[in-house]
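Chapter review: from sequence to fold.
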Amino acid sequence: MKSIWFFDDVNLFRKLCPHKFKAYKANHSFDAYKKKDYIYFEEDSSNKVYLIERGKVKIGYYSEDGEEVVKAILIRGELFGETAILGETKREEFAQSIDNGTNICPIGVETMHSLMRDNQAFSFKIYKIIGFKLKKLERRLQLLLFKDTKTRLLDFLEELCEDYGYDCEKTGDKVIPHPYTQKDIACLIGTSRPTLNILLNELKEEKIIEFSRKEIRIYKNIA
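The token string follows.
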């Protein structure tokens, strides 16, 4: 697995959650959310950082026209709200659970700073995460602004392949088992679910991909 949210094949939740550290274990707890519950809203105070123990979380904001813009959909082991570490005082985005049974590990900013001061490797991982996330977000926004929907989809599939893909030994195809629904993918590339379905079927007819609910296969002659 080559996902930028993993380091040395270690899930971030397992590595960074405070309940793994003796000094913080006693006062540490988890928050549970249902589908469509908000973890925080735009303009809320930025006083915590969050790790996903289970479920999925959507990060986004609303445009001046009231249109929802999805920046990211995050899964187990991923970090969000991390700009609070850098001194952000109010949220510039919302975070919403899009899964029933989402479990979140909230970490106070002061606790996070303390952990970072006490552990240089921990601190390095956090800053590396922030850098990668900013780079990935910048690329996604550039695609939304300047590329057509099909190009955005192909770029997203390439990103999925880097994060989750592996080579099929028998055929040499790229196989991508992934955690996203079609609705998730449509949100991330800035299109509607019906349009996404049309594009996926076009790619299938062109013998570029094969897809099912939880897996996408990119044929060898294309990958």
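Two observations follow directly from the output. The radius of gyration is 18 Å. Residues 1-11 have pLDDT under 50 and may be disordered.
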